[in-house]
Design goal:
With 454 residues, the protein is an alpha/beta fold. It folds into 2 domains: 14-294, no CATH class; 400-454, no CATH class. It has helices spanning 18-30, 40-54, 69-72, 91-98, 100-103, 137-142, 158-166, 400-407, 413-429, 435-449; strands at residues 2-6, 11-15, 108-113, 116-121, 132-136, 171-175, 185-191, 197-207, 212-221, 228-238, 243-251, 257-266, 271-279, 283-292, 298-307, 312-321, 327-336, 341-350, 358-367, 373-382, 388-397. Residues 1-13 have low confidence and may be disordered.
Length: 454
């Protein structure tokens, strides 16, 4: 946001970009139709006022140094319309978007098409109410329930504020204490539109004391769908002893823009195992913020970023060791070809009273072309003295000696390169505990490699 100086009244007037002006016009038009009564409209307006004051994040902000949204987002399509009738789900489109492995995975599935909820397809319907309870976010807001959600509209960043202003739907889910659903919970956000659209969704998920669950969050598109601009936030609260595996798939197409965020609060003894798979979007920003609120909690985070063409993928993390005796591990793998760019920013904060904290992070990139770029900025901010913390980052080309070794044993060059690239990324994928999901991620990696340059 540029500024000009007014000599007449001695004030500074901000100059908004075209995209920021579009968002202001769109919000005024959309606000009366957005779901929610009671405190919600005022919360939406407060959120948009915060965004309007700050504008789109830009490179002068340290956290956005490598991902300048003000420069890269030139136009914003209109929000997807809120239909009076739920859209019909076409199974063949879902299969094409998810792929056979994920589409065939037995799961409690909650599907959103262009940001609007479609009836769930759950294999064990009797588990609803016994193992978990849910409402769609739109339903909860319209019914003026769940006043505790007000704190989740107090956005922590400009993109989160934009999400709070425009959000139309998502899931409000409670996994009951000391209970484990028999199959994963799968949230599917499917893009299927003939016209460019903007979609804002938000998930609020609470895992009660001792709850155990596998959560999949798939952001996918029907092949041939036009470019999507998605803003997707997920808030997780793991109570004492909860054990959660959370897999996020980002595969909305090569022209998609995805601004995603995960905020997790971990109480005492909670175990949060997260994995993100980003498959060649035009622009993706994955913000991950984890706060340890109880002692003895653990975080394991893995990510695979696959870049092709002019893809730009940014994974930015803040891990807050706010209490003693917690452990965090992060492993990020990037495979980048053509003119693609990968970004990893990882900050580990250890508060003064958080003794016995143990934090380690590693970011590694494989550059498949001389014009690919990887920017890595690991940070440690330590205010306690009895801690174990470390970080490392590397970027390298594919080892031609290893390629030659495989070719000398009769393996064609393209296959040899694919084997080496798959082995590089597999370290992060292998950490997924659920076998079916692990195989699905491996299958998507192999599908992406099939289109790699020899």
């Amino acid at each position: 946001m540029r500024q000009i100086w007014n000599d007449d009244d001695m004030t500074v007037t901000p100059i908004k970009t075209k995209a920021e002006q579009q968002l202001a016009t769109q919000f005024e038009a959309a606000a009366p139709q957005l779901p929610g009564g009671g405190w919600v409209p005022a919360a939406r307006r407060a959120a948009f006022a915060r965004f309007a004051a700050e504008g789109l994040p830009h490179r002068r902000l340290e956290a956005w140094k490598y991902t300048d949204l003000r420069a890269s987002i030139k136009d914003v399509p209109a929000p997807a319309p809120r239909l009076s009738v739920r859209p019909k789900l076409q199974p063949d489109k879902l299969l094409a978007a998810l792929g056979p492995e994920l589409a065939g995975l037995l799961a409690h599935r909650f599907i959103f098409v262009n940001g609007m909820f479609v009836q769930p397809a759950a294999p064990e319907d009797h588990e609803a109410g016994s193992f978990y309870e849910y409402h769609t976010l739109a339903e909860a807001l319209d019914l003026k329930r769940y006043e505790w959600m007000t704190r989740d509209f107090e956005a922590s960043s400009g993109t989160a504020a934009l999400n709070a202003a425009f959000v139309t739907d998502g899931i409000l889910l409670r996994v009951i204490a000391a209970i484990a659903p028999s199959v994963p919970i799968h949230l599917v956000f499917l893009a299927d539109s003939a016209e460019p659209e903007a979609v804002a969704t938000r998930n609020l998920i609470r895992f009660e004391k001792g709850a155990r669950a596998t959560l999949i969050e798939s952001h996918v598109a029907v092949p041939g769908a036009v470019a999507l601009q998605a803003n997707a936030m997920t808030y997780l609260h793991l109570h004492d002893g909860a054990d959660v595996e959370h897999i996020k798939l980002l595969a909305e197409g090569p022209q998609a823009t995805h601004l995603g965020g995960v905020q997790a609060l971990l109480e005492a003894g909670a175990n949060y195992r997260a994995f993100q798979f980003s498959e060649s979007p035009l622009l993706a920003r994955n913000d991950v913020n984890v706060t340890f609120k109880g002692e003895g909690a653990n975080l394991t985070f893995g990510a695979v970023m696959l870049g092709r063409g002019k893809s730009h993928i940014d994974t930015t993390m803040v891990i807050d060791h706010a209490v003693p005796g917690c452990t965090s591990r992060e492993l990020v793998k990037a495979v980048l070809e053509d003119d693609s760019r990968g970004v990893f920013q990882g900050k580990v904060i250890v508060r003064p009273d958080a003794q016995k904290s143990d934090g380690k992070q590693s970011a590694r990139a494989l550059l498949l072309s001389p014009t690919a770029e990887f920017d890595s900025k690991p940070e440690l901010e330590i205010y306690a003295d009895d801690v174990i913390c470390g970080h490392g980052s590397t970027a390298a080309e594919l080892d031609e000696d290893q390629v030659f070794y495989l070719m000398a044993r009769g393996i064609p060059r393209a296959e040899a390169r694919a084997l080496l690239i798959e082995a590089f990324a597999a370290e992060a994928i292998e950490a997924i505990a659920h076998e079916g999901i692990r195989e699905a991620m491996r299958g998507r990696l192999q599908g992406w490699l099939a289109g790699a340059k020899p």
